[in-house]
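Backbone geometry:
***
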Amino acid sequence: MALKALDIYKMLPKKNCKECGYPTCLTFAMKLAAGKADADTCPYLDDATKQILRGATRPPIQLVKLGVGERSVPVGDEIVLFRHEKTFYHPPGILFSVSDLWEKERIVAAAERVMAEVFPRVGENLRFNGVAIRNESRNPEAFGKAVAAVEEVAEFPEVLISDSAEALASGLSFCGNYRPVIHAATLDNHEAVAPLAKRFGCPLVVRARDLGDLARLAKACTDLRVRDLILDPAPATLGEFLIRSTAIRKRAIDRSEPELGHPVYLDATACVPEEAAIVTGILKYAGVIVTSVLPPGTARMVLTLRQNIYTDPQKPIQMTPGLYRVGEPGPDSPVLATVNFSLTYFTLLGYLEASRIPCHLLIVDTEGFSVLTAVAAGKLSEKLIKESMERFQVAGQVKHRILIIPGYAAPLSGRIEEVTGWKVLVGPRDAADIGEFLEKEWVAKNQPAP
């Protein structure tokens, strides 16, 4: 069970020596309770006390890193059962599945798609994370060739799927230095498979249908000095996955069964329908999800859902403040100001692009608040508008001195005119009306005389 700060404080030396890096032992205890400090940093604790504190204060679900380099994927390290309690931190890695029975060209095409395909959305580039290679041929040589084909184009995490230690060794000979995930160690083969994970420093999936067996298997692999584990509860149906992944998460969070404190693996291709399995995996605690090669529409849906669920509900997605160009604006083009809440920005941008009226779009830093909320909270003010205009040199981009502000910011219009010296036009409240507004208030009034 997790220890509270006062429980931890009672176990500390109470010297307030600051050698741990914190001003008091109580502060150190609070950091330990929050999982933000390491018991080893206190030089006065004996080994037995440190062992107790390590087990009670580490994150309940271990952090596991898939792959290496820029495309590596951290999973796990979660501390809550429900997103609204705090947030979910590490989105699941989603990997396309290929078979060593496929022709090389088909395998390479799937890998190239994972490398190249990107879906931009609200300021982020969404993409799939890697490829899982299945040893369906039962032939170690064919498996090695399939892994080699992926390696020709791959710079992303891989999962090597086989119950044969010989086949896994063949695959690892091509990619072992890049920390692929090994799937899977079972009660029958873990003594042969776990040493491969230890040798190459790879994350290891342990697979068992019974949660008790899964916990025992995880402990056995840990005893074999394999540190990075992922749990596969081997569900036969989507309902089984939901029940087992939830039970694993609960037992990990309340620390009633620490051996289950690892990320969860889901083979969505084994559940029907697959799309529902992927959605369930994203919503209910999967750290690694293996799918078939998804069509573009389903791919966008999956990545969008993952982004939504793993966005901190207490921290709205924000755009970087600045002066953005919509189309090819010139010195006579309108200047519009709005907040840096991403949904506001991209909604407005869509309607501005549809209007085909080139313009300058000034994004000011309201800490991610919407226009109405920013005005009510004092985050959007005439001072901020003035500072942003000066910072991004708006005056140097246009010959006129007219600024268009959102309809909900109308109460600020007079004060903005006073501090900036610019004339302010109050735009519509609904972004959908911006095209009509610009046609009427800008294009029609700024047409050259016949």
In short: The chain is about 40% helix and 15% strand. The longest helix spans residues 238-253.
